[in-house]
Structures are given as structure tokens and as C-alpha cells.
């Protein structure tokens, strides 16, 4: 069961719902009502949030069979425990989403299963986290309920809290990483100690320990009141990674204090990033507890090339390696480093250094390099082209109907909904695009041989990239002038289009590597597009069938200006970017008139193939906001493929009076990209 019926976005649904009411159920991501009953296994989608601003977001009680709540979105409360379980309730909680605790007596609590007063606590609760999951707030299990917290293989879980209490067992499975966000006091894992098999088991996985500002030098980052056992799985060793704010991390640190530590060796401990170095790792044993300590110092010999090399070793391409090196150059510019001190040239340099310090290994460095690099998917260009192509294709189809005598001039109005997808290509990101447009125009014959018209459209598109968390919202306005001339069987038509496009963008930088600063770069910029399409061909009429072979040429010019991001210390800007296209196309339009008593039915089919002679990669000279004098050369994808193929099937009904309606279904294919379009159109002839 899904808590809501969702589509990727609502645009296609909005368009089609004008014709098919059942599609109305697709909607924008929404805040869902609190969950107070769970009779079947339930999933919260990645675009939804279960939210309560004054009470529990999830409040379940009563015995019965165990159900699973899969959270791929957000569960959140503001002023109460987010998830409360009572009266023997058994529950499995899974998924890759976030649980954000509410404030209770100045304490942030994500889950409470203890019961209170005469209210009994829960039954067995099992957390099983998938990669990307996050819990913000303390967790209270019901002691003695055999509750557990586990991770999936190769997953990352971020715990931003100070306490996990009453748990029987915590297991970090092979390849997983538990990131403990920095706190101003020790983080405590309190096990119930009832079952001898309980404890904290680190199985070929990693614990990332963040040193918090204000943590006393004698206090452990993590305190475990039971056994913690490290082991290897399939040659994967367990490890401890030490991280934190660069200026707060130096000195001798107590990493873990536990009742008993087994399977640990000194070589398991490494530093996070290239700015820090760990040495003198020791396991100390006493009658009351065991402790792991280490000396954290600065790496005096770190260079920008080190970041580039580490990212490249993790799979980053030349562009990404160059970008992370450029940011490292900024961080190190004027920075003085000794083993115990570091002095930055500016606060911006320090912010970038802390961001880069999240690159703890080759994999995370490669990921961070990709996040630092501006989006290379070509989504910006594709969104603009889609708005213009829909406009020009609509005009071509209308002129074809008029030219064949199957339609008359007048006013026309249409709406389009479309969904597209571009595949990931090596290190170049892919994306999903969803759009909705309203289109209208008017045309008139000025002679038997010619017509002229004007058309306009308003478009809204949403783009989400697949690998790196980059999103765009694009509002476009397109305006076209068009005309057609007939010469016996020959014809020539012209369309001139101009458009304005307003972009809002968000780009996540450093969230995946645990950066504690601002992780979102937000952009606000605009673009202009100009296009000219000329089409010529022949009219063949065989009975009630019209056949029109077509040849088209198209010139396009695109200008993006004032691309500016803010927020993240790695925000970027550039003044302008231009792109031109020279395209030629060929295809065919086939239509037929079927006469009815009330009018005529006109099914049609159009297929076109296009080749762009100018499709190529291009460079953008990009500047870091923090250091405007630093230029970064970015080699990006254009979003304009060399070859494009599109086909449209339509059916139009023209009544005996002066009105007509039409429905069109279209599909477009480019290199690694395809989209599907649905169009509904109304026309009034005069």
C-alpha cells in the first residue's frame, strides 16, 4: 500500500485530466496526515512527508501481527515525539528516508517505544535502514522487547542524535557506514543487557565519528554500555573514520568507550579527508571499560593535486578532477598549516576546506567531485528546446491540416502534458523531465495561396537529475509568427519563434559526505531562445487521403545569462552561455478524412527525423562565488543531440459548425533521451 497515489510530477496528469478524470489522482508531493493505524504494510514515497506540527507523526498501539512501515520520504514532528509505539505494538521500520524528531522538554526525540504511566511499551521494533537514511533525534526502544537496529549491505545511515536507548542489538552489515553527526556531548548507545547475544556488531563496515564543538577532551565521542565487536566479512575490514570541523578536531581524542571492545586493531582508524592525520591509535583496557584513543593532527603536506588524484582514483573524470582541484586551490590559497595549527586566508576558504574534508576515501572524493561540478546532463538546454519544439511542431501540424483542406483558419487552443527521461552516460548525469504547457493562436488566409498566424505558449517544466541531487523548475513563454504559401502541389511554410525562460535550481553539494554547513546551492537565472524553421514539400491527395512529404531546415540560437547560485560555499556563477544549432529534417505527414453526419473525423500521422550540424560539447568559464577571480573550465553536454526522431499520431473531429477538437499522442527519441507527449486541442474556425 502507498499512502498516496503519486506520479513523478503532476504535469502530465494535469493535462490528461482535462479529458480523463481518473488521472486527477496524480498530484504534487504533499504533506500526509499522521499515521494512527497500520493494518497492512505501508510505504511512504520519496516525494512525500508524514507530518504533524503539534503531535506525533506516527502513533501506533495494540498487539497483533508485525507490519512494515517503509519510509522513503520524511516522517517529521515539530513539538512531540515523531514516532510513538505503545501497548505491545510490533513494527518493522525500513527504507532510505528521514525521521526528524520533535522537541519534548528540550529534547529531540525521533522514536519512543517505552510507554508511560499505565501505558505499556511496544513489542519488538526492528529498524532496517537502506542507503541514504537519516535519523535526527534520540531513539528510545522498550527494554526487553528484543528490538534491533540494522543496516542493509553497502548502505549509509546518518544518526544526528545523542542517545539510542533500550536496544538489544545494533548490526552494521557488510559495506555499510554509520555516520554519527557531531554533538556537543558524548553520544550514548545504551543496550538493555537482557540477552547475552546483544551488543554492537560492526561487520566489515565503517563508523564515521564526527568530533563536535564543545566536546570535552576527556569525553568519548561514542559511549557504549555493552560489547562492541569489530569483524571482517569477505575480506572487507571494519574501520573507524575520524572527522569533524577542521579547527575543532586537533588533539588527543577518545573515540569510543565501551564495556568491552573486541576485534579491534590500531590500523582500523583513519582520518577523514586530506587535511587531517591520525596517529598513536591505542586500545586501553581497564576494570570498568575499554577505550580507543587517537591523536589527530593536521597534514602539513596536503596539496590540491592530492584531492584531484583521490577523486580520479575513485572514478571521477577529467572535468570533475579538475573542478575539485580548483576548489582545493581556493581552500589552500594563503592557508598556513603546521601539525597543530591551521590558519585560513578567509572564512570562505575555511568553509570550502571543511566541505572538501568530507572526502574520506576515493569513493567519497569521486562523489564530491561530481557534486562540485555544475550539472552536465544538458537538462537546461533540453528544457528550452522542448518548449520551442512543441510550439513549432504544433504549428506545423496545424498548417498541414489547413493546407490539405481538412481544417480552416481561425482560433485554436491546446494543452500539452509530457514526460521525458535521459539515461545516465558514464559520469554524465541523466534526468527526468515533466512538463505542462498551454498553447493558443490565431490564423487567417489572406488569399487562396497563403495564410499567416500568430501563436503563444506558457510552459512549466520540472527536472530532476538521477545521480546528483540537482533540480530545476523552468517557466517559459514562447511567441511565434508563422505563414504558408501554396504553389499548386508545392508549398513552403515559415515559423519564427522567440522565447523567454526563467529558471530556479537547487543543487546538493556535500550532503552525501556529511558536510555540516550549507549543502544546498540555489540558482536563479534566465535564458532567451530564438528559432526559425522553414518547411517545404508536396501535397498528394488520393481520394480522402492526404500525403505530404516534408523537408525542413531550422536555425536556433540560445543565450543563458547571469547564472548565479547562492547558499553553499561551492556556489558558482557565470555571466553567459550561448549555443547555436543548424538543423535539417525530413519526414512525412499522412491524414485521412472520414465523413460523418455531424462532421468529419481526421486521423493523421506525422514522422520526422532531424540532424543538427552544430551539436557538440562546449566550455563554460565558471567562477566560484567565494573567489570570483578563480575560473573553472567546465566541459558540458549541450542537451542537443545530433539526431532527433519524433512521431505523432492524432485524431481530430471537425463538426459541421465551426468548432473542432483534436487529441495527439507523440513520442520523441534522441541520444540517450526520450519523451512522450499528450495534447488536447480545441479550434474555432471563421
TrEMBL record:
Gene3D superfamilies from the UniProt entry: Autotransporter beta-domain (2.40.128.130)
Superkingdom field: Bacteria
Keyword annotations of the record: Signal
Residue intervals of the Autotransporter domain: 404-686
InterPro entries associated with the record: Autotransporte_beta, Autotransporte_beta_dom_sf
Signal sequence bounds: 1-29
Any one Pfam family match given in the protein's UniProt record, by short name: Autotransporter
Record protein name field: Autotransporter domain-containing protein
